[in-house]
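Dear colleagues,

As part of the handover before I leave the project, I'm documenting each prediction I ran so the next person doesn't have to rerun anything. This entry is a single chain, and its sequence is reproduced below.
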Amino acid sequence: MTTLSRSGIFIITSICLVVFIVSAFKLLKLNLNQSKHNADLEAKILEAQLKLKEQELKYLKMQIHPHFLFNTLNTMYGFALKKAEQTPDMILKLSNLLDYLLYQAEKPFVLLSEEIAHIKDYIELEKMRFHNTLHVEMNISQTSENITIAPMLLIPFIENSFKHGSIQNGVLHIHIELSTSLEHIYFRITNTNSESGAAQGGIGLENIKKRLELLYPNAYQLTIHDKSKVFDVELQLKTTPHA
């Protein structure tokens, strides 16, 4: 009886041990399957978020195109009515801007030097329109030619200054400052403002704020001061050079 009792205890213990091991393997397998399912689900959610982000960026770019073209074509229309001698030169500069807008703006990033070149073309167009009532001062210093930036990110700030800036004492004053390091871009633009200090905004600035959130999350600082005589925009971007 003693031997039989011991054998029973051994058998029961063995059965419990086997059940425990099998259950442990079963739970481990279920956990692994659940982890894989969760990982697949997270990947699908991330992919959906990325697609949504891409669609939103495309929508914001589509907003830039007609807004930019409308302002530029308005300027050209005025020159055409006056049959001004500068019209052919204006058409050439507009052609360069359109090339940048249609082809380069579709890229996620372009060289900062390209953005600067088209900013200068845009300013030259505006100088033709304003004649002697415009004073633009640009201070640009670059540490590297390989620094990139999202296309059409700075030009709307320039546009906004010409569109909403106020002529004071017969002149619209605009000051542009741009400097770079290997990891940062610093941009600042100021223009004379009306005495009322009315807010300057519209599609351009709102569009840029949304694009900054999507393209440079936690990597930018935008400060806007709408004062009684000066409208001041300051943008700092954290970026890296690309070969």
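Residues 2-82 form the longest helix (81 residues). The two ends are 86 Å apart (CA to CA).

All the best with the project,
I.
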